[in-house]
Amino acid sequence: MRRIGIWIALGGLLIGTAACGGGSGGGGGTAKAESLAVGFVAEPANLDFTSTEGAAIPQALLVNVYEGLVKLGQDGTVQPLLAEKWEVSPDRKTYTFTLRPNVTFTSGAPFTADDVVFSLGRVTSDWKLKIKSQFDVVDKVEKKDDTTAVVTLKRPSNGFLYALATRLGAMFSRTGVADLANKPVGTGPYQLAAWKRGDSIRLDANPKYWGTKPALPAVTLKYFKDATAMNNALLTGGIDVISNVQAPESLQQFADPNRFQTVEGTTNGEVVLSMNNGRAPFDDKKVRQAVRHAIDHKALLDTAWAGRGQPIGSMVSPTDPWYEDRTGDYPYDVAKAKALLGGKTYTVKMRIPNLPYAVASAQVVKSQLAQVGITADIEPLEFPARWLDVVFKQADYDLSIINHIEPRDMRIFADKSYYFRYDNPEFGKLLASADEGTEQQQTDELKKAAKLLSDDAAADWLFLFPNLIVAEKGVTGLPKNAISESFDFTGLAKQ
Amino acid sequence: MILYLLKRLAVLLASTAVAGVVVFAFMAVLPGDPAEIALGVNATPEAVARLRTEFGTDRPPVVQFLDWFGGLLQGDFGTSYVTTSPVGEQIADRLGVTAVLVLGGMLIALLIAVPVGTFAAVHHRDPLGAAISAASQVGIAVPAFLAGILLVFVFAVQAQALPSGGYVPFAEDPAAWLRGLVLPWLSLGLVQGAVLTRYVRSAVLDVMREDYLRTARAKGRGRMGALWRHGLRNASIPVVTVLGLQLATLLIGAVVVERVFVIPGLGDLLLNGVAGRDLLLVQGVVMVLVVAVLLINFVVDVCYATLDPRLRGAR
After folding, report:
1. Taking CA atoms, what residue in A is nearest to B158?
2. What are the start-end ranges of the H helices in A320-436?
3. Min Cα–Cα distance to chain A from B302, Å
């Protein structure tokens, strides 16, 4: 009898909790209008993006918690944020920013020109990341009065204002940098409310925000290491949004338009098939050109990434003003590829990171290269540790595949010590004159630079990584294009 | 008994020290430099060198080991390079979650194994007993994470009866806490239950063949009555041993199940640490897991000696 009792008790427990599930699921509907949960793949290790690399921290905090003087709009243009307006001197070396009055940090401290001097000065003195070199062009930052800050450059630079819209331009309080890793203090529409490590970060609306209050009083960022677990969470109402789909073939689960919506936009991520320009056989331009002709980009995209994404042809994203469709430079042509190789065959090492898009793409690249006589042995390396060490640092590879996600990152080809080992001084000259010239000159010169990269077959560009968001039907204000480092929550709402 | 306890305690301490050396040595040969990974693809050599000095990873390995192990003995796990917070605090946060997961799984396993195993032993000649035996064989072959994925598919995605993952602290919402743990407990418990069922069955079968049980039955007790009164204590000895071993297996299973169910336990912390080459964190978590297993074995030995006084002298 006693044993039967145990079974009844256990059965009761299960039924009880299941019934509970039905109940609170219904109740959750009303609570959701108050807050929204968004699923992400990478959790920040800490909250200090001045000393820790990676996309996870600015994704959560930039624009939402930390604001800059300017921000990047969805169309890729620089827009005012903490600076109401700015004036550029005729020699294009002096920027005078007029700051919004009556802005305070969440700590209560007022935001003034002193904080601008402090924050921009800290980039050079305290930041640990290499991106801080983008501020090398800054000569001095001065306060004119409480709401006017003046930045003087050593030479004209188109890149400066753009850099100001990235994390480099984030405004910190002079009294708020003691524990950046755990306690962010910004002027943004949201503030950090709770951080359950390994699980989630909750941002609550900042009650004293200077601007338009965000529609949602609270947003939760939920972190998943496993793509299936994240999909299941959306299917079962655990989250409302998948910020970026990691496996496009799983999209069919969300095909029901009565429950879900899919948003597809662009990112700054160029999935690059890198070829080691520094050693045989890819030090030979003809071999590199043969590779570009040998790859059927449309077929690759269809097979490896469910047709989502876009062929590009060079190191420029479509949201940049100097984008040109360069996919026609090396059309898919097996005969031409074979001719370029002159009947020779090669066996090469394809060392890729163990990331889904790289593994999927590598299989297709391998089979397509095999058709022209290049045998690519795929060797997946653990990412980040092993890949960084072997491919990136030592450049011990022939082919690799990685998504270069930084915005406007064409300049990496100008550094001949970079793992591409691409060395063409003319490319560097084009980049330098583009940065110093007028905006029109910048656009023209960078178009030329992109064409040069493509002609040289410095690498092959497999596709532009898509921004794929899946959300519950009622969610509005999703950022279609992921072109800034931030996932902007300020426009999000839910009916 | 006291001498026996002291001996076991000495073995426990020695094993911990050896484990410390082994864990540290493994971390030292793991490829990947924590400073490089922290700074990512755009790091300058100077920045990496500076960070190495900050982390202390540029010191000789022996110095690093003594520093770390000396800290451990005082309960100080060091400060993580990557998260910049004390490793001990982070482990303490997660340990409770994993313990609840493992103990709940074990409870479900016992609730299944003891009655079902006993039933199968008593009825070992019936078709039903044979069927239970076969079913538990199948259960053993299923890994806990696979059970987890199946349970999520059926109860969360299809039936929408339980959450597919996530963890709500008990203090925040007890009902949500329980609902979130049902499926992870079941995925660990069902598989472990199958394993333990077989041990319970064979232990009870062994006991049923003992002379003292035959004597008890000759004195007029029924089969179940005799087993209840005289058999279960003896049958529990081999089961307790296996229980200890299986608890260690469950701990490993929990690491994987945490990933399937998005539960922020030790497993999640460990995987984060490995990916970021957060060496102090990984060393800390592994040490805690090793010590937990050693402690379980210690407790099993003590239980063993308590249940069967004959064993104290023998070992």
Report:
1. A236
2. 334-341, 356-370, 385-387, 425-436
3. 28
Enter the tokens of residue B53. 């000095």
pLDDT value for B312: 63
Mutation target among B42, B183, B261 for the A interface, most CBs of A within 10 A: B42
User: What is the domain partition of chain B in residue ranges?
Assistant: 1-86, 88-312
Q: Say yes or no for a CB contact (<8 Å) between A53 and B162.
A: no
Select the CATH number that applies to the domain covering A190-259+473-494 from these four: 3.40.190.10, 3.60.20.10, 3.40.50.720, 3.50.30.30.
3.40.190.10
Strands A260-275, A399-404: parallel, antiparallel or unpaired by DSSP?
antiparallel
Scanning chain B, the segments in alpha helix (DSSP H) are 2-29, 34-39, 45-55, 61-73, 87-122, 127-141, 144-151, 174-208, 211-218, 223-226, 232-260, 266-275, 279-307, 310-314
Q: B190 and B139 in contact (C-beta within 8 Å)?
A: yes
Whose structure tokens read 């427990």?
A13
**What's the CA gap between B253 and B187, in Å, rounded?**
9
Structure tokens at A447: 């178009």
Helix (H, G, I), strand (E, B) or coil at A232: helix
- Which of A 13-32 lie inside 8 A of B, CB atoms? 14, 17-18, 20-22, 24-25
Question: For residue B266, which amino acid is it?
Answer: L
Question: Which CATH number is A66-169's, of 3.90.76.10, 3.20.20.70, 3.30.70.2570, 3.30.470.30?
Answer: 3.90.76.10
Give, for all 495 residues of chain A, the pLDDT tens digit. Answer: 333 333 334 344 444 443 333 333 333 344 445 889 999 988 898 999 998 877 899 999 999 999 999 999 888 889 999 999 999 999 999 999 999 999 999 999 999 999 999 999 999 988 888 788 889 999 999 999 999 999 999 999 999 999 999 999 999 999 999 999 999 999 999 999 999 988 999 999 999 999 999 999 999 999 998 889 999 999 999 999 999 998 898 899 999 999 999 999 999 999 999 999 999 999 999 999 999 999 999 999 999 999 999 999 999 999 999 999 999 999 999 999 999 999 999 999 999 999 999 999 999 999 999 999 999 999 999 888 889 889 998 999 999 999 998 889 999 999 999 999 999 999 999 999 999 999 999 999 999 999 999 999 999 999 999 999 999 999 999 999 988 889 999 999 998
Choose the closest CB to B165 out of A182, A196, A233: A233
CATH dotted code for B88-312:
1.10.3720.10
- A5 vs B contacts (CB less than 8 Å): none
Residue/partner pairs of B294-297 with CB below 8 Å, 24 or more apart: B294/B12, B294/B15, B294/B16, B294/B19, B295/B12, B296/B244, B296/B247, B296/B248, B297/B244, B297/B248
Query: Residue A10: its pLDDT value, please?
Result: 39
Q: Residue type for B149, please?
A: I
Per CATH, domain A267-465 is 3.10.105.10:
yes
Of residues A240 and B62, more confidence is placed in: A240
Strands A35-40 and A241-242: parallel
Domain extent listing, chain A? 66-169, 190-259+473-494, 267-465
ipTM of the complex: 0.81
B281 vs B84: CA distance, rounded Å: 11
Chain A residues within 8 A of B269 when measuring between CB atoms:
198
Residue in A7, A17, A222 nearest the CB of B179 = A17
Q: Number of CB pairs < 8 Å for A and B?
A: 145
Tokens 């560009």 locate to A461
Interchain contact A438–B (C-beta under 8 A)? no
Distance CA A251, CA A470 (A): 8
